[in-house]
Specification:
By secondary structure, the chain is α/β, with parallel strands linked by helices. The protein has two domains: 160 residues, OB fold (Dihydrolipoamide Acetyltransferase, E2P); 148 residues, Response regulator (Rossmann fold), CATH 3.40.50.2300.
């Protein structure tokens, strides 16, 4: 197998803190819609920071005992033995297989995975405010599509790979969760319905009240609404919310911009903010520190988030 793209697709992939931008790798999956007609490409995008490299198709034949219809088998790559998933099967797209197909090798959530697609096009710098909510997208699961970007003549569907992998390994063990009797309230911001549900379940077991929002913009509006209510009633903001828990990558406003807005406000700035992502690298952690996030955690460790929230809340009170 020869490499068709650069390892890690270059450095400098994480943009300036608080700019509410990211870079995406655009790729496509061809679809046979009518027999005898050329296939039609469907365009998708993923965060460049999650991409290790792009390789030629290994031409795998799915095993009969595959744990999922999209599972094609495993291949060796450097020190890894990585599973390869046929993304067209997962998205219910009738993709004709060719020798020109490629595998996008990703690394996030402490795992390395290959995704078979038809090809890649280019890298785009995208502002989260350009991302259109995923209404009316036809795919196997709209939970996997977090938004669309209009590139003039075609829409790029932003894909949440964590949602796809969660079908294989999403699990929270209630026995490992910390429980509070204080009635704390957490405000959660995440564009993935799968992760929102997981966090909601975790917070419920830990005896938290919670406010669920779909992105940073919605979360900030909710926080400011609670601030206005607290001021009108002569109460402290902590009587309405005690901690903010947010994904980093979200449409309209990302977690860094959300945190920056919270921390710059003299009233709500005292609320602890926990940021999480599947890719908490040293550079990403530095950006979180720059906007004064109180703690950063990777998605595989989300079962510990309630315990950390309790520590931060009670530490703030002290």
């Amino acid at each position: 197998m020869s490499v068709k793209g650069k390892s890690a697709i270059d450095t400098g992939i994480l943009l300036e803190t608080g700019t509410n931008e990211l870079e995406i790798l655009e790729f496509y999956i061809n679809e046979t819609r009518k027999e005898g007609e050329p296939p039609t490409p469907n365009y998708f995008g993923i965060n460049v920071a999650k991409v290790m490299q792009v390789i030629e198709t290994p031409n795998l034949e799915p095993p009969e005992s595959a744990p999922h219809p999209s599972f094609m088998g495993t291949i060796p790559l450097r020190q890894h033995i990585l599973p390869v998933l046929d993304l067209s099967v997962w998205l219910d797209i009738d993709m004709p297989k060719t020798e020109r197909d490629i595998v996008i090798v990703t690394e996030f959530s402490q795992s390395v995975t290959g995704f078979l697609v038809s090809g890649v096009t280019e890298i785009h710098r995208v502002g989260w405010q350009e991302v259109i909510p995923p209404a009316g997208i036809i795919a196997k699961s709209t939970d996997a599509i977090v938004g669309m970007v209009d590139k003039g003549g075609r829409f790029i569907q932003l894909l949440d790979l964590e949602t796809i992998l969660s079908e294989f390994s999403l699990d929270i063990n209630p026995d490992t969760l910390t429980v509070t009797d204080k009635g704390y309230t957490a405000l959660v911001a995440d564009d993935s319905a799968t992760i929102r549900t997981m966090l909601q379940q975790s917070l419920e077991v830990s005896n938290f009240n919670y406010i669920i929002t779909n992105n940073g913009d919605e979360a900030l509006r909710k926080i400011m609404e609670l601030k206005a209510r607290a001021e009108a009633e002569g109460k402290d903001i902590t009587e309405y919310v005690n901690v903010v828990i947010s994904d980093i990558e979200m449409p309209l406003m990302d977690g860094f911009s959300l945190t920056k807005n919270i921390k710059e406000d003299p009233v709500v700035g005292k609320l602890p903010v926990i940021l999480y992502s599947s890719i908490i690298t040293d550079e990403l952690r530095h950006k979180g520190e720059a906007v004064r996030a109180d703690f950063q955690i990777s998605k595989p460790d989300l079962q510990h988030i309630a315990q950390k929230a309790i520590e931060l809340i009670e530490g703030k009170k002290e």
